[in-house]
Q: What sequence folds into this?
């Protein structure tokens, strides 16, 4: 897995989101105006335009919207094959992630998944997902 | 009416592996397209290009020795050159300029400048949140669209492969195609090629080649006095949906549906009335999604629709008669080549691949990771 460090170009909400991963807390944003959840975090609600968005804890549950097994590495940081997925979080938003701890041929769309954490060199963690018990 | 826009000249540069610079290829295509029209650089007062540098139109204008009064460098990946046709038509109609040169080139096969990981944009959230996962950009997003389409509708890898097989059959009829001399492709050969990002195989993916193209547009009034039959720009529409993979609204209903609806409404025509169909084929799945979005078949039915050779020579819904990005050329952004082939078909100049009936055409560009979508409707004057 990658060792990409925090990037100086990140905005304040991105730093806050990544900082929470040090404690293995998966955050999404919720709009105080319209109640919509969003990921990735930003300084405006993508549903209604309200700037009053705040972080809330995500349940860490979701389902596989789609996935792909990558067989050619995009750079020397990666060792294929591995499964990249778009997971629909229980709160609603999609998140790009990986499916881990499974035989790659066992993954299917709409399977339930739960969050797992992969440590990064600098103390942060990368949220990934494993197939849920019910699937 | 007299200021309605027409396409009056089209050309490619050298294609394939050229060893030439981007500006050399753009200049080749420009000179050939102006010659096709019977115009010169002195006639050009509008310029569109992108992807050359931060100041793309400025750089190309300087190199060509022109001082345009109107320029557009919109960067929308594979949809850019359909967008340029639309913007140029608006600029010509409103009188901002009279004759627009649209030119593109890339030398990415010679320069080996294409990366499987895509371009890391330091200020983009897609880089902050998505780069650590190692998705191939753009291939993995299209792969996930294909996987979702298979899951929802039962589409098969064989049906995806049919798109590549049809493209190769057309390329065998196009002497300029990269795969002109490669012989026919079979579904089994596509499925036997290595998987890059499942379910997409290497032969589900477009080529990486050098190449340039140019399109010259002017007023319909002026077009009547020029060398070739004018091609009218009848309608256009665009849509922008997402930049990051996680922000895609729907993997199987793309922005092409909205973009094309706008274009067809402007033209007062529908997909059933299109003789010539040129759809961006970055990947085989891109074609299936676009066939549905533009209304050539119902949602979910594109796999069956593309089967049995229907898209190839002699099929009842021929598309991408040049051989497309899959078998003709794909220098990074293919959008201008959709327009060039459509114009040649409408003029009856497509040689062995000429369609028997070619009075109307639709070109649809798709850029990024199903990010940008632009449709242009063309017709014989």
A:
């Amino acid at each position: 897995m990658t060792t990409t460090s925090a990037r100086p170009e990140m905005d304040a909400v991105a730093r806050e989101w990544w900082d929470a991963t040090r404690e293995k807390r998966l955050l999404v944003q919720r709009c105080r105006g319209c109640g919509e959840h969003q990921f990735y975090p930003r300084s405006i609600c993508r549903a209604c335009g309200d700037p009053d968005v705040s972080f809330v804890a995500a349940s860490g549950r979701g389902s596989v919207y789609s996935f792909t097994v990558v067989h050619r590495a995009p750079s020397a940081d990666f060792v294929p094959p591995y499964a990249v997925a778009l997971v629909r979080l229980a709160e609603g938003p999609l998140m790009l992630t990986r499916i881990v701890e499974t035989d790659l041929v066992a993954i299917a769309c709409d399977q339930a998944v739960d969050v797992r954490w992969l440590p990064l060199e600098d103390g942060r963690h990368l949220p990934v997902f494993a197939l849920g018990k019910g699937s | 009416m007299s200021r309605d826009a027409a396409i009056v000249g089209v050309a490619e540069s050298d294609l394939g592996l050229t060893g030439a610079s981007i500006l050399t290829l753009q200049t080749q295509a420009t000179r050939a397209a102006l010659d096709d029209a019977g115009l010169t650089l002195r006639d050009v007062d509008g310029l569109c290009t992108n992807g050359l540098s931060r100041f793309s139109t400025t750089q190309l204008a300087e190199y060509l020795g022109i001082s345009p009064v109107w320029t557009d460098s919109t960067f929308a990946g594979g949809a850019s050159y359909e967008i340029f046709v639309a913007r140029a038509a608006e600029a010509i109609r409103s009188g901002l300029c009279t004759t627009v040169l649209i030119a593109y080139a890339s030398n990415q096969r010679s320069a080996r400048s294409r990366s499987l990981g895509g371009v890391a944009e330091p200020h983009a959230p897609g880089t902050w949140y998505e780069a650590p996962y190692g998705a191939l950009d753009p291939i993995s997003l299209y792969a996930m669209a294909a996987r979702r389409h298979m899951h929802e509708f039962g589409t098969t890898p064989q049906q995806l492969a049919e798109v590549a097989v049809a493209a190769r059959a057309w390329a065998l009829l196009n002497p300029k195609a990269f795969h002109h001399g490669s012989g026919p492709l079979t579904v089994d050969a596509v499925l036997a090629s290595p998987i890059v990002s499942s379910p997409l195989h290497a032969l589900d993916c477009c080529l990486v080649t050098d190449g340039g193209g140019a399109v010259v547009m002017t007023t319909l009034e002026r077009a009547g006095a020029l060398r070739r039959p004018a091609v009218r720009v009848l309608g256009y529409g665009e849509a922008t949906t997402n930049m990051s993979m996680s922000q895609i609204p729907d993997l199987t209903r793309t922005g092409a549906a909205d973009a094309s609806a706008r274009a067809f409404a402007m033209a007062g025509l529908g997909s059933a009335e299109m003789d010539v169909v040129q759809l961006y084929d970055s990947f085989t799945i891109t074609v299936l999604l676009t066939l549905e979005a533009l209304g050539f078949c119902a949602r979910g039915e594109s796999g069956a629709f593309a089967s049995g050779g229907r898209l190839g020579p002699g099929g009842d819904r021929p598309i991408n008669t040049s051989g497309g990005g899959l078998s003709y050329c794909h220098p990074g952004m293919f959008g201008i080549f959709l327009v060039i082939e459509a114009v040649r078909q409408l003029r009856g100049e497509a040689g062995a691949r000429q369609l028997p009936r070619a009075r109307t055409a639709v070109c649809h560009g798709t850029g990024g990771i199903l990010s940008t979508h632009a449709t242009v409707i063309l017709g014989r004057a």
